Amino acid sequence: xxxxxxxxxxxxxxxxxxxxxxxxxxxxxxxxxxxxxxxxxxxxxxxxxxxxxxxxxxxxxxxxxxxxxxxxxxxxxxxxxxxxxxxxxxxxxxxxx
Length: 97
What we know:
This protein is an alpha+beta fold and 97 residues long.
């Protein structure tokens, strides 16, 4: 599953917000949430996902960039595993708000 929009659910550290500033014709902007385009965003997000799913890694899922690959031998097991992973993501998003 593609979890690219997950980046937008991760708040930036307050002391890092100013470092993300960019200027365009409409004014000066800063990222308040993690952006896929930031240099360190991909490894930081991948670490975050792996920490949330640490006990499931290699058993039911793998992460590559912004993709979470859930694997199973049959459909019913796959649905159970997807539910496990999605519940962890939901808990992470709820706790960060």
